[in-house]
């Protein structure tokens, strides 16, 4: 190397040393200076209401995956999203995807989790089927993945959590072989066995239904258990996840779903009947022991499936280690063959065959003795555990009942049902829980279940009579009441002065999924019946003014001066609403409506505490007794009408710099003061 080149190299090295010195910003200062933690977003995938992106976490320097809801998600979907995040965070296992962070951007939730640079098991199996990939070609390697998934589910079950959406799509495999189970959106907490710290997550459980808040089936057709189809009334349990694991094993063996068809209804019917092709009929090379395990896990009767995921996992391990599985009910000849296979070097010597036979017989007898001893020990252990759970259950039952009351009073009926079910399961003599359970079944229009619960309560004769009356009208708890029948039930509740029945029916119906035309008819009917009791002299023989423009999503229930209550309008899909010239007293009827514009002028509303529509852009509260508008500062209002309201000082308008138009009446404020506070707002003075 000549001097010129040597000089250049030294100068070049010196240049990089200087750059390193410039980059050496203390981490304390760097982290403190970070205002926006996540950046460099890249789209990955999306589902019905959820979007997944990768992004850079500036505080840790790593790439993570961020899940967020789409902008049109409603409050129920946001709540379910947050509950999924909290439950995922509570499960910490090497084969369960870890959650890192949770937060809100405005009122839109998000959470971050580990980013997996790899593929789903579904994609890998699809590529293997089409000869596009050489990863996990060996069945043994695919069984390794399955065993790790079993580890994750066994852990979740030990914590009292059911997954209820097991499928190859939710099993992610990294480029380095990590196996992670994802998507706990349909998970359910089992109160009787869950950890104390998961009791709060237990309140996240939805009511035993097979339809999501989006009206979709809960689970994935092709991998769900018969009890998830909604075609039979059956509770979900550990056996439900065992069935789905059997379906995943079926896909691993055959590269096909066990249940398929041209329509969802056909798939559901096949699932209910467990109508699927045996694996060996698809591929004769599939080992019979594994087919036997698969068939047992996918038994139609939950009692015939494996009692736990651990038992299923042990069967796979037995096959892997050369032992017979219990599912195949192996003959002595098969056991001997497997033994010989596991001990090839010994079996070569024919002179030892007799010794091997003797040893095998001794081994079997000894195993039977050990099994008998183990069975006795397990029975004693189960007896002690049962006594312990019975004692602990009775002590815990009142606490579950108290939580059920809290959930009911806040109209969280699904949580209330689950808490009541757990209370009476732990202590069947707890009458109060049976009474609340019966009330909830009436609200859910399940009158057979209501009668059974109220008879065990024995202290609510009026509710029991009501349940029996409508049991005669509708004796199938799966079917819903017609509009006329529902209004008759609602009216009966009002006439019997049963506010819990009336309030429950209103809130449950308001937040139920139903076609728009049906919702409109229910809203009309309930408003008339409800207000007849409140102001019978005004409502008698009077028709309701109720119009909904589907194109513009505008709801007009104005100029019904007899309406005092319109709670049934909660959850209505209106983007603008007009309830002016009515006697409503608060904003509760607008909860969970995606409103951008609202007119409540000439109403009896006196305060804004119940206004929860934070996406409002236009609001008319003229001719009301509202005086304090401080809460409106949290909204991005563009137009506000406060003319002839109780707002009298311009101080109330501090913080409304983004307001484009303000309507006031002559003499309401001193204009010079108002213009100083709102220099960019057009002020319109009304007579």
UniProtKB/TrEMBL annotation:
Annotated protein name in UniProt: Protein kinase
Taxonomic lineage of the native organism: Bacteria, Pseudomonadati, Lentisphaerota, Lentisphaeria, Lentisphaerales
InterPro entries xrefs: Kinase-like_dom_sf (IPR011009), LRR_dom_sf (IPR032675), Prot_kinase_dom (IPR000719), TPR-like_helical_dom_sf (IPR011990)
Record field: transmembrane: 346-365
GO molecular function: kinase activity
UniProt KW keywords: ATP-binding, Kinase, Membrane, Nucleotide-binding, Transferase, Transmembrane, Transmembrane helix
Protein kinase domain span: 38-317
CDD domains xref list: STKc_PknB_like (cd14014)
């Amino acid at each position: 190397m000549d001097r010129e080149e040597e000089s250049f190299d030294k100068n070049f090295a010196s240049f990089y040393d200087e750059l390193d010195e410039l980059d050496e910003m203390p981490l304390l200062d760097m982290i403190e200076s970070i205002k926006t933690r996540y950046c460099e977003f890249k789209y990955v995938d999306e589902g019905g209401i959820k979007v997944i992106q990768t992004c850079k976490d500036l505080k840790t320097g790593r790439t993570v995956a961020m899940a967020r809801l789409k902008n049109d998600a409603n409050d129920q979907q946001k709540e379910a999203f947050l509950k999924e995040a909290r439950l995922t965070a509570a499960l910490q296992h090497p084969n369960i995807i870890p959650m890192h962070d949770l937060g809100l951007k405005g009122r839109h939730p998000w959470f971050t989790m580990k980013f997996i640079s790899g593929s789903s098991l579904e994609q890998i199996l699809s590529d293997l089927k089409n000869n596009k990939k050489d990863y996990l070609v060996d069945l043994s390697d695919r069984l390794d993945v399955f065993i790790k998934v079993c580890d994750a589910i066994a852990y979740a079950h030990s914590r009292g959590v059911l997954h209820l959406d097991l499928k190859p799509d939710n099993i992610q495999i990294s480029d380095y072989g990590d196996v992670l189970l994802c998507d706990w959106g349909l998970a359910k907490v089992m109160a009787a066995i869950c950890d104390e710290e998961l009791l709060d997550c237990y309140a996240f459980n939805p009511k035993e239904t097979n339809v999501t808040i989006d009206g979709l089936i809960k689970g994935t057709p092709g991998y769900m258990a018969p009890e998830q189809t909604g075609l039979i009334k059956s509770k979900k349990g550990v056996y439900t996840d065992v069935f789905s694991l059997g379906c995943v094993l079926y896909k691993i063996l055959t590269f096909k779903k066990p249940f398929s068809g041209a329509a969802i209804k056909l798939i559901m019917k096949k699932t209910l009947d467990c109508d699927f092709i045996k694996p060996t009929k698809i591929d004769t090379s599939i080992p019979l022991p594994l087919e036997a395990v698969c068939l047992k896990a996918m038994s139609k009767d939950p009692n015939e499936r494996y009692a736990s995921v651990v038992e299923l996992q042990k069967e796979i391990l037995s096959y892997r280690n050369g032992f017979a599985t219990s599912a195949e009910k192996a003959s002595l000849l098969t056991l001997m063959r497997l033994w010989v296979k596991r001990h090839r070097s010994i079996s070569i010597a024919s002179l030892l065959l007799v010794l091997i036979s003797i040893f095998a017989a001794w081994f079997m007898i000894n195993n039977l003795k050990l099994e008998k001893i183990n069975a006795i020990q397990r029975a004693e252990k189960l007896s002690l555990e049962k006594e312990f759970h019975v004692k602990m259950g009775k002590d815990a039952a009142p606490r579950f009942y108290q939580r059920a009351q809290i959930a009911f009073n806040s109209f969280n009926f699904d949580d209330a049902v689950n808490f009541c079910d757990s209370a009476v399961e732990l202590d069947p003599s707890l009458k109060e829980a049976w009474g609340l359970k019966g009330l909830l079944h009436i609200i859910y229009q399940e009158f057979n279940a209501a009668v059974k619960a109220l008879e065990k309560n024995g202290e609510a004769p009026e509710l029991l009579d009501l349940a029996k009356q409508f049991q005669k009208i509708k004796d199938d708890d799966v079917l819903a009441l017609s509009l006329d029948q529902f209004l008759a039930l609602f009216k009966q509740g009002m006439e019997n002065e049963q506010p819990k029945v009336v309030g429950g029916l209103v809130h449950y119906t308001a937040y139920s999924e139903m076609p728009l035309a049906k919702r409109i008819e229910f809203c009309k009917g309930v408003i008339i019946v409800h207000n007849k009791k409140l102001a019978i002299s005004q409502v008698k023989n009077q028709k309701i003014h109720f119009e909904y423009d589907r194109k513009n999503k505008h709801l007009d229930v104005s100029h019904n001066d007899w309406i005092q209550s319109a709670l049934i309008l909660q959850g209505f899909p209106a983007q603008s609403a007009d309830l002016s010239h009515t006697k409503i007293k608060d904003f509760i009827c607008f909860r969970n409506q995606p409103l951008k514009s609202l007119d409540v002028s000439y109403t009896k509303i006196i305060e804004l505490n119940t206004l929860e529509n934070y996406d409002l852009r236009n609001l008319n509260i003229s001719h009301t007794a509202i005086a304090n508008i401080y809460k409106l500062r949290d909204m991005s209002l563009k137009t506000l009408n406060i003319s002839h309201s109780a707002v009298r000082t311009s101080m109330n308008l501090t913080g409304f710099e983004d307001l484009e138009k303000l309507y006031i009446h002559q003499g309401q404020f001193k204009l010079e003061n108002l213009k100083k506070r709102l220099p960019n707002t057009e002020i319109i003075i009304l007579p």
